[in-house]
Amino acid sequence: MTTADPIDTTEKASGWRGSRELWLDAARDAFVTSGLDAVKIQPLAKRLNLSRTSFYWFFKDRGALLDALLDMWDDSNTGSLVAAAGAYAETITEAALTLISVFLDDRPFESRFDLAVRGWAHSSDAVAARVNAADAARLAAIRRMFERFGYDPGEADVRARTVYLVQIGYISMQMQESLAERMSRMPAYVKTFTGYAPSDEELRRFHARHGFNPAAG
After folding, report:
1. Quick check: is 217 in a domain?
2. Segment 61-87, tens digit of pLDDT
3. Residue 16 is part of which domain span?
4. What is the pLDDT of residue 152?
5. pLDDT one-digit tens code per residue, 19-31
6. Three-state secondary structure of the chain
């Protein structure tokens, strides 16, 4: 019997070995705040106050954890953006505001997570391929949003790129901009993106969604 066996027996009996979600959330937090090198089994175990062996109940190895981290990013960031682009809206301006909300909420679309994965892609062809596929899926969803409101495919493509690349630019440049500053530009952004200005009522609903009171600045 190896020295690891008593630890395994204790964990089986107690049931306290964390959970897959717990390990994955810790990996995401470490990745976003400290980079890929921080996503290692022993440091994560220490962070969670769990034994290293408990990790292997949920993941084969570190590579499996990294794969799961990419899946988590795709599900949360790409999934939420695609869902927002396809959400019901009565006007294209309302649809654009719903889409922009994804980038302001920071969950489930997490800007720092997106930035970290894009940084990772510089050193991994496999991750770069995942990022390229995600970008293509996101752009396709935004194109469909414009086409749904009668824009021809060519114009829908350009407008989709304008919306998406501006938002990714905010993330990549790590823009430090207050909510009030962002909101003050929103009507002009929406008009640039869609060709139409949002209505006062659409802006009121948008402000309320993000807890912004224009009167308070």
Report:
1. no
2. 999 999 999 999 999 999 999 999 999
3. 10-59
4. 98
5. 999 999 999 999 9
6. CCCHHHHHHHHHHHCCCCCHHHHHHHHHHHHHHHCHHHCCHHHHHHHHCCCHHHHHHCCCCHHHHHHHHHHHHHHHHHHHHHHHHCCCCCCHHHHHHHHHHHHHHCCCCCHHHHHHHHHHHCCCHHHHHHHHHHHHHHHHHHHHHHHHCCCCHHHHHHHHHHHHHHHHHHHHCCCCCCHHHHHHHHHHHHHHHHCCCCCHHHHHHHHHHCCCCHHHC
Q: What is the CATH number of the domain that holds 26?
A: 1.10.10
Domain assignment present for 29: yes
Confidence of residue 16 (pLDDT cuts 50, 70, 90): low
Domain check: are 85 and 186 in the same one? yes
Count the domains in the chain. 2
Within this chain, do residues 181 and 100 fall inside the same structural domain, yes or no?
A: yes
Q: What is the pTM of this model?
A: 0.89
Does 177 map to a domain?
A: yes
pLDDT tens-digit readout, 104-155: 988 899 999 999 999 999 999 999 999 999 999 999 999 999 999 999 999 9
Domain identity same for 49 and 87 = no
Residues 42 and 80 in one domain: no
